[in-house]
Amino acid sequence: MWKPFKTPEAIYMLRLDEQDENFNLILTNITDIWETHFSLEQLVEIFKKENPNIEATEDIVKTNLLSTIEELGNVNISLNYSDNELNLVLQPKCSDESLKLGVPNIVYTFSLLKQDSSKFKNELTIPLIQTVFFLEKQQQVLLNLLKKKDRELEEYRMEKGDISRNDLKTETFHLEGGNNSNNLFLKVFKEGDEFWKYFTDQHGKVEIDLLDVEPEPWNKNKRRKVIHNAKTAPKKGIQYKK
């Protein structure tokens, strides 16, 4: 998962992938992208070089790095550029208690190489397009579910009458026009058109678990609304004879 962060100069996103004790570290500033690969053994060597006074097993080094990336907001980050290389330094912030005890700060230093445009496309552009498509499909599912809920509430009011608590009453949902800015990728990628067909042929389909939220057949017919008062409201529970 991408982890965003900010320096005084720019905004960045960082991602660490792990598979079979091999790691892939990717960094981007939304314009360029850098990457480095290393094994668990190489990670331990990096750790020992930067932290000679700290003894740690492979599992501890690995777990600590994963925790550092996960909690990036609690990490001091510095970046240094040189030609096509970027040096990334991560230093988790110590707690006040650790500082009082004199616990040394842990430091990780990585050298990442600048990648070409194809890497940027595969790691950012394509996933962003797929994310937009996924979210719009998911939004449509939720809209259909809201419509069904409105129909269900209408059915309840027709059968049982209006509820007495005003704070629980809701208006029928209507989707407003929304943002019509030409700069946003809204309603651009449509399933079935030529662009999306070519895109999925090249980069794979976006798997979405769509729920069936169409109204049930019995819930499609309009019914006459019934308003109950205290005398005509249907009684519930056990009724005792007077």
Automatic annotation (TrEMBL):
Residues 135-166 form a coiled coil. Keywords: Coiled coil, DNA damage, DNA repair, DNA-binding, Nucleus. The gene is LOC115882741. One of its GO terms (biological process) is double-strand break repair via nonhomologous end joining. The lineage of its organism: Eukaryota, Metazoa, Ecdysozoa, Arthropoda, Hexapoda. GO terms for cellular component: DNA ligase IV complex. This is Non-homologous end-joining factor 1. Pfam families: XLF (PF09302), XLF_CC (PF21928). One of its GO terms (molecular function) is DNA end binding. It is found in: Nucleus. Belongs to the XRCC4-XLF family. XLF subfamily. Residues 1-95 form the XLF-like N-terminal domain. It comes from the Eukaryota. Residues 117-154 form the XLF-like coiled-coil region domain.
